[in-house]
Amino acid sequence: MGVYAVFFGGYGIVNRHLPLLDCRDLGTAFDHVLPFVPGFIWPFNLTYPLLLAPAVVLRTRRSLAWACVAMACLVLVSCAIFVLLPVWVPRPTFVPHTLSERWVAWVYASDRPVCGFPSLHVSATLLTAFILRRARSRLAHAFLALSVLIALSTLLVKQHVLLDVLGGAGLAWLVDQVLVRRRGLRSRLGDSAEAHNPPAGRA
């Protein structure tokens, strides 16, 4: 719940107050040729429930606390970048007819087209996959695949551009290297996984 509070609270505050006139467009020719596919709004929204995965997989309070610290730092650094490097994402104009199009229209109405770089959808799901990998969870590979699908969905529903996706992936990797791998979270996650699945023959 703390991660959700930081995620929606931090992002929500910046998104509501960031001046649109100060934002720049990082779109490339690649983004301009990508089609708008409203159906990808469903994998796009998978990010929010997937953030709960560490709470289900990690088995000690200490390992879960460290995972929460890593995720909170990811969000706070992202919010700082949103302010220092304000980016907006051009969105298509359309009249919603299908359920997917209505859902996209609702997302557009509730989420201003700012805070593009780096993509929090990409960074949060990828960091979750990294955390599960450190915990030696069998779900890690599935989460990596879901991260790729979510990254693609952010492009096809025109919530992000390619540079936003690459920035989100880079930030997730950086947080994993600095906070997860080098600052003790790796050993704590490993201890958590080992405690849950002790080697055969250990008393």
Strand order of the largest sheet: 1-2
By helix and strand content, what is the structural category? Answer: mainly alpha
Report Rg. 18 Å
Note the beta-strand portion: under 5%
Number of strands: 2
Task: Report what the structure shows.
By secondary structure, this protein is mostly helical. The protein has one domain (2-191). It has eleven helices and two strands; from the N terminus they run αβαααααβααααα. Helix 6 (61-84) runs antiparallel to helix 11 (185-196), helix 8 runs antiparallel to helix 9 and helix 8 runs parallel beside helix 10 (162-181). The two termini are 35 Å apart.
Q: What are the main properties of this structure?
A:
single chain; mainly alpha; two-stranded parallel sheet; 2% strand; disordered C terminus
Summarize the structure.
This protein has one domain. α6 runs antiparallel to α11.
Can you lay out the helices and strands and say which pair or pack?
Blueprint: H1 2-17, E1 24-25, H2 29-33, H3 41-44, H4 47-50, H5 53-57, H6 61-84, E2 87-88, H7 99-110, H8 120-134, H9 140-156, H10 162-181, H11 185-196
Parallel strand pairs: 1-2
